[in-house]
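User: Reviewer 2 asked us to show a designed sequence for the structure in our supplementary figure. I'm pasting the structure tokens here. Could you produce the per-position amino acids so we can include them in the response letter?
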């Protein structure tokens, strides 16, 4: 089903076929397209055709139907628009963040970050920290909250941006930009979610993974799906 991947276009084509993939080289006993990379695929060369590190942002910049973020095992991954509603149905369904917060299922840091993104629509990491008043001492809790919101499908990465100096010039390394999941894909994705039960979504994803990797470890597959 999956072919050897020699460049970005082949990566993209195979991702559409698979529907989902762990982002890094460790497939966690489930599935990763990295296992199909050819010899000329080399990380951190900044070659947009053959460097998988560049592909993370290329899919967000160039495609309209691929999501990238910390979706699996609190690490990066890709999900296509076709499969996104099924993960959304399992991880979030019709749950409301504030109800989840009151129930103790969402952290205070995550609630604060969610409110900032709701207000500003899109925010890079450095402005989330600045506007939220998060200090260096808050780093571990802040990072955990950003991951928590992605894993529970409340926010998702939508690009990257650099800091802006007082003179209006960009500087430093690029950082991830986040938006609400509702603002990332078109309304038809959420409409589809309303038609899917969590149980049916779980079963569909599970069977898909077994198609991609018949030797997938059941315990890991469950964690891959549920987060």
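Assistant: Here is a per-position design you can include in the supplement:
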């Amino acid at each position: 089903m999956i072919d050897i991947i020699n460049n970005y276009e082949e990566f993209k084509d195979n991702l559409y076929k698979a529907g989902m993939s762990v982002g890094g080289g460790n497939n966690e006993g489930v599935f990763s397209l990295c296992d199909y990379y050819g010899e000329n695929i080399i990380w951190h060369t900044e070659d947009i055709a053959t460097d998988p590190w560049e592909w993370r942002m290329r899919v967000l910049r160039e495609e309209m139907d691929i999501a990238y973020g910390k979706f699996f095992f609190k690490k990066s991954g890709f999900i296509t628009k076709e499969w996104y509603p099924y993960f959304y149905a399992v991880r979030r369904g019709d749950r409301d963040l504030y109800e989840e917060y009151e129930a103790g299922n969402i952290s205070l840091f995550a609630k604060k970050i969610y409110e900032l993104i709701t207000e500003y629509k899109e925010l890079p990491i450095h402005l989330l920290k600045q506007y939220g008043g998060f200090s260096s001492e808050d780093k571990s809790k802040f990072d955990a909250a950003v991951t928590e919101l992605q894993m529970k499908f409340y926010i998702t990465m939508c690009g990257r941006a650099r800091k802006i100096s007082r003179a209006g010039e960009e500087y430093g390394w690029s950082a991830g930009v986040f938006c609400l999941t509702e603002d990332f894909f078109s309304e038809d994705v959420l409409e589809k979610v309303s038609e899917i039960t969590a149980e049916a979504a779980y079963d569909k994803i599970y069977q898909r993974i077994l198609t991609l990797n018949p030797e997938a470890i059941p315990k890991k597959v469950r964690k891959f799906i549920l987060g």
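For the response letter, you might also mention the following. The mean pLDDT is 94. The first strand starts at residue 20 and ends at 22.
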